[in-house]
Design brief:
Layout: E1 2-4, H1 5-10, H2 12-20, E2 25-29, E3 32-37, H3 66-73
Length: 77
């Protein structure tokens, strides 16, 4: 089913219901298909700590580097 934007605005609830029940709904502008109206599929929860045990922070990671400080702040003496 191809529906132009103006008709989609008027019949949004009906179109959402059709898409929910498996109907393919394409929204078009000037009869050029733009988007598909599809049912929402949850992506699932993100899993934290995927790199736990695979990466170690090197010693001195937070230490300042004088060369980098000079690039950002100039030679402050």
């Amino acid at each position: 089913m191809i529906v132009n934007i103006s008709e989609a605005k008027t019949n949004l609830s009906k179109l959402v219901n059709l898409a929910y029940h498996g109907e393919k709904v394409v929204i078009a502008k000037n009869n050029l298909p733009l988007v598909d109206l599809v049912i929402h599929k949850p992506e699932g929860k993100r899993k934290l700590g995927l790199l736990a045990g695979h990466f170690t922070v090197p010693d001195g990671f937070c230490d300042e580097d004088e060369a980098i400080n000079a690039m950002f702040y100039g030679d402050i003496e």
